Give the backbone structure.
Amino acid sequence: MFLTTCERNHAMGITIDRDYILANALSFVLDYCRLWLQCLSFNQALTESLYAASPEILLINELETRWRRKMILSSSR
């Protein structure tokens, strides 16, 4: 059992526990996904509340963004 889960690196003189690394990597991935989903839901809720409070704000920001993109594209020609 020990030989299947651990790998000995003779050049470095260290033992790598594959199960430990896998468990940590899995934990990191799950935490990252959870945080990412929380950020998405928070941003969506924030955007919806801003839009409900003042729809003009998002409209102006969208027009400004389009104008900036147009200026960037025209300056790169």
Q: What stands out?
A: The chain has a mean pLDDT of 68. The chain has three helices and two strands.
